[in-house]
Write a structure and sequence with these properties.
4-stranded antiparallel sheet, Alpha-Beta Plaits, alpha/beta, 2 domains
């Protein structure tokens, strides 16, 4: 079956679905909006024979797993986990300023690349397999996260549980520019540093212990860990109450990025080993969140080679690279599962006003994903 030709003939339907998903604005923080988008998706996947499992959530959008059967003779041969997410960084109402439209080979709109284009790929691939009566070699589970942009422990636990039950993992995050896959991602560690001291009149600072001064000293110590591979961003900071009062409390939130678990462990151990510089000052380190790095592994490299052979049969070439941002794929890869990320469409402008996908890549990636699901 020539799936590239198949999807070219279906590009109108794929664009219509993409338009509908983009119009269902779904910012992570708006549970009602995200739930409207994911319930729409649930109905679509159910229509192509997928079993729908909803994981209700109180404070975030609900999570879903759509399970698609394999050939009866292959039903016990493992499972492919496909990672997607329906939430975006864009608030409800952004569509009025940033409408969905196509211009040449580009399709614009909030969330069109990150990652509603990936959702279109997942649905379109399963629909193609059903229409062509081509049962896949392995069972397929499509996981739809509703809190990927901000992260939450409940989503992480579900992803890890589904990954443990899978033979391999495919993530439909956008491709690198030019269409390359992502086989390495930086990990992320968010630490909150709190310092405390003793308040006093600013005219008699020797009677107090300035928490802001202490915070600045400790931030300088942590900044010494920066390197070409490790970054630290002081994204939030605060402290004190009035200019004429020695501050007794201060805080900062640090966003760390790194390529390896060894680098992460060094950051954590250094933070926990910090000692007050001023007598009477105290330091507290709180870990707010952590996403492991997606390190290059032998298992993922073998999976990449299999994917390249399949892509070659479609006349496609698959490059591979790395990126500084994290994704749900990092959680699966951290469990040792063969993982490929960046299988979504090519484009640009993620989290920016000019967010767009390249239509040819949407069609090409749909053909590739369908073949991967059928043959891996």
């Amino acid at each position: 079956m020539d799936f590239q030709q198949y999807f070219k003939s279906r590009h109108g339907e794929m664009l219509a679905l993409l338009r509908e998903l983009v119009r269902l604005e779904s910012p992570t923080s708006d549970k009602q909006a995200v739930d409207a988008c994911t319930s729409f998706l649930a109905a679509k996947f159910q229509s192509v024979g997928a079993k729908v499992t909803r994981h209700p959530q109180k404070s975030t959008g609900d999570f879903y797993v759509f399970e698609y059967p394999a050939k009866e003779s292959k039903a016990q041969d493992g499972r492919i986990l496909v990672l997607t997410h329906a939430d975006t960084v864009w608030p409800v109402g952004r569509l009025a300023k940033m409408p969905f439209y196509a211009q040449g080979e580009k399709v614009f709109g909030p969330g069109v690349l990150d990652m509603k284009g990936g959702l279109v790929l997942a649905f379109s691939a399963l629909r193609a397999l059903r229409e062509m009566n081509m049962a896949p070699a392995k069972r397929i589970a499509v996981l739809v996260n509703a809190s990927e942009e901000c992260g939450c422990p409940e989503a992480d636990e579900l992803i890890k549980a589904e990954a443990r039950a899978a033979s391999l993992v495919l993530c439909l995050e956008p491709a690198l520019p030019g269409g390359a896959l992502k086989i390495q991602r930086k990990g992320r560690l968010v630490l909150r540093m709190e310092t405390s001291g003793r308040a006093a009149h600013a005219g008699q600072p020797e009677k107090g212990v300035n928490a802001i001064d202490e915070l600045m000293v400790q931030l300088k110590k942590m900044a010494a860990l920066r390197s070409k591979d490790v970054s630290m961003n002081v994204g939030l900071i605060g402290g004190g109450e009035k200019a004429n009062v020695v501050a007794d409390k201060a805080w900062a939130v640090l966003d760390w990025r790194f390529w390896t678990a060894v680098e992460r462990d060094k950051i954590l151990s250094s933070a926990r080993a910090l000692a007050p510089a001023a007598k009477g000052a105290r330091i507290k380190i709180i870990q707010e969140s952590q996403t492991p790095p997606m390190e290059k592994t032998a298992a993922s490299t073998r999976l990449l080679e299999e994917a390249r052979e399949i892509a070659a049969g479609l006349g496609q070439t698959l490059a591979a690279g790395k990126t500084g941002g994290g994704s749900d794929a990092s959680l699966a890869a951290g469990l040792g599962k063969p993982t490929l990320d960046g299988l979504g469409p090519d484009g640009d402008g993620i989290h920016a006003d000019d967010e767009h996908i390249l239509l040819p890549s949407l069609l090409g990636r749909a053909a590739l994903l369908t073949e991967l699901l059928r043959r891996l």
